[in-house]
Amino acid sequence: MTAWTDFLANQGATLDNGIISFPNEAAAETLAVPLTHLGMLQSVGPDSAPYLHNLFSNDVNKLGEAELQLNSFNSPKGRMLASILLWREGEGHDLIISADILPALHKKLSMYILRSKVKLGDLSAERALIGVTGPRAAAALQQAGLPVPEGLRSVAAAKGIQVLSLDANNYVVVVGAEQAASVFGSLDTAGAAPAGTHAWQLAMIRAGLPLVTLATQEEFVAQMLNYELIGGVSFKKGCYPGQEIVARTQHLGKVKKRMYRIALPAGCSAAAGTDLYSPAFGDQSAGKLVNIARLSDGSFEALAVLQTSCAEAGEIHVGAPDGPPADLLGLPYALA
Q1: What contacts 101, CB < 8 A, 6 or more positions away?
Q2: Is 67 a domain residue?
Q3: Which residues form the GCVT N-terminal domain (predicted)?
């Protein structure tokens, strides 16, 4: 994606291990973010739906033409190897996942093709992903001449560009790499100011939408990341890797670990995968950070998986039993 990344570099952006930042970012409500920390796979062929349906946690066979679906791909032990955005395109499906796990996941998924009439390819060099977030996100898309999806978790397409709706304030634009600079410029003109990866990570944290990365692979069962609450699991479909564990977790009753949104103080040294502690668990880890984003004042917000009993007790520390304190924040959906 040289033309796209060269354009961003000419705009003063810096790219480090998929994380992009812009100098002197505007304090705007609506932002356009190059999603260089994400990548794309494409499954093409007449067997694409049953092939993916047999691998993922959601009902791919029932995925509609203009629908966007959350999915997980799990280990046989039910631990999430990837969180996935999935939708239909032509005779197949497109998948968005964290870029740092894409090559290994591509190889692993390819092993399941066997005699299925499917080809699985990496589109990361051909497609650019741009996140549009904020209260005027839909208006900015429309003003930039881009299609605007109708409703939650839906897809709109026009002139080779696809727009995915995550919720009312968050969209992903999927565009050919050669068109990305033009689209990014149009979004800027329409009032979506350029911003770095942290801005999108913060938007996803506040939306309660987790991203499984290399640091957190095989750490969580789907329910720990609230996946059944946000539409990422079907309990009516057939078998898939890890299905027995996911189903058993659901039928046992109250989940012992849940994903919460937390605030961390400035100066806190933490990253995805960092352990969390609570007095009730002593020196034993009571949870882990899933995703983290830095705010302009130097403090942080994060998604974290915690023992529900520790979250209810309210005293949480980051990195060590006597580490910096974390405060619980709300999510836009209720925890069952």
Answers
A1: 81, 82, 212, 213, 214, 217
A2: yes
A3: 35-143
Count of H-run helices and E-run strands, the chain: 8, 19
Rounded to the nearest 10 degrees, what angle do helices 180-189 and 2-10 cross at?
Answer: 40
d(CA 19, CA 190): 24
CATH number for 290: 2.40.30.110
Cα(221)–Cα(80) distance, integer angstroms: 6
Range of the domain at 193: 1-252
Return the CA Rg of the chain.
20
CA distance 227 to 212: 12
Return d(Cα 101, Cα 119) in angstroms, integer.
19
35-48 pLDDT, tens digit each: 999 999 999 999 99
Give CB contacts under 8 A, 24+ apart, made by 85-91. 85/164, 85/172, 86/52, 86/56, 86/58, 86/60, 87/63, 87/155, 87/162, 87/164, 88/63, 88/64, 88/155, 89/42, 89/162, 90/44, 91/44, 91/45, 91/46, 91/48
Based on the domain organization, do 273 and 171 belong to the same domain? no
Domain end: 234, 252, 270, which one?
A: 252
- The answer on 102 and 45 residing in a single domain is yes
Output the six-digit token pair for 32.
């356009």
27: which 2 tokens? 């304090």
Same domain for 36 and 8, yes or no, is yes
State which amino acid sits at residue 182: S
In whole angstroms, what is the distance from residue 255 CA to residue 76 CA?
19
Q: Where are the beta strands (DSSP E) in 22-79?
A: 31-34, 38-44, 68-74
Global pTM reads 0.96
